[in-house]
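Let's practice the habit of predicting before peeking. Look at the sequence and jot down your guess about where helices and strands might fall. Then scroll down.
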Amino acid sequence: MPGKNLFSALFLSKDTFGLDAVRKLFENHGVELHYAQTVAQVEQWMRGHRLDLVLCDYDAPGVAELSCLQANTRWRGISMVLAGRQHAQQIRGKRVHFTVPKPFSLDALAKGLRASYTTMASQRVASYRHTVA
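Done guessing? Here is the structure:
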């Protein structure tokens, strides 16, 4: 599906290492990937854009307070987290659909992306339904 991005995602990470490879993987699956380095940038993006998926590096400062990861969030997209074992306790109770262990491989990330694809599609279709009298 190169060239036709059906979905939109945001990647929060404190560094850009591997960003090009992750972006290419997402675009090969029809997902346009945007990049943010701070929690404030993610929150701003979530208010002004439609996002189907948020990918967060749990080593980024303040990621635990991100509103889309809270259990009571109103956001209905998919949440993926890149996290090491040291963050297992912190992730418990958060709204995280997929956890990809760090150091992550593109294969593991691709599996999570493929697994979330059906849910993203159904959420996208549901948002375009209108009630008719």
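How did you do? The first strand starts at residue 7 and ends at 12.
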